[in-house]
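Need tokens for this chain, all 284 residues.
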Amino acid sequence: MSRPTTVSSQEDWSTTASTYSSNVGRTSALSAARLLELVHNTSPISSTSKVLDNGAGTGAVTFALASQFPSAHILATDISASMLENISAANLPNVTTKVLDARSLSQGLQPGTFTHAFNTFVLQTIINPSSAIREMHTVLAPTGIIGIALWAQRNGPFEIWERACQTLDPSYTLPSPFDDPHAWRTCEELERALKDAGFTDIKTEEVTMPFPFEGAAEFTDFWFGARNPGPERCMSNWNGDRDKIKTVVEHVCKEAFADGREIYTSAVLGLGRKEGGGKTSCDP
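Here are the structure tokens for all 284 residues:
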């Protein structure tokens, strides 16, 4: 089967905005909490900090930042205004929002502005992710800290889809769920990208998180109904019967993943400093 070549757009992410927090957002919030801990332990976030959440989506990192550091100044940006509506609706006193492409921050922000910059689960959804890291380097102040999260190799929802498809067609091959089939998914790849952008004092680690659902039926509704670009790309690669594969997906989730309660995914977390020195590390 041929791989889809579509690239997720601003419209694609706007379409999935209404359901993102209730499914993917639950898992990304867990990794966001760990990433915030790593960054804060390296360079504490305080009342004088100016923090950028680049590609904020529906606000997993922004809400965690606002809760833990209510006196910090936080800017949440995203290419999709619909995604940012969830953040704006919260009326957080220390948070502002701005529609910006992650790859062109300097067109709307002043260089050298932020003490901390985060980007979680965005780089794999765009073409030329290196440009986004370079832009974050540009808008960070000297000694500023970058925090990045990527989906790693293990991804429970895509494992369920692949197993279901191979039940009906053993020759089925799962396509990359990302715009770029060579998207970074390891500590080493993220370290290299941060180093190439000019960051030092680089640290990375891989974490595993639950991706829980109330049951197989809820997972099936998410996969087929959330309009998330990743699942949509995989489903466009399936040429078989739509109703039949939907039934098999629910069955696989129920029998092999404890009715949706034992779905796990992994993430690569990384941080770096705009100026400074030090060795890189990749903790499994």
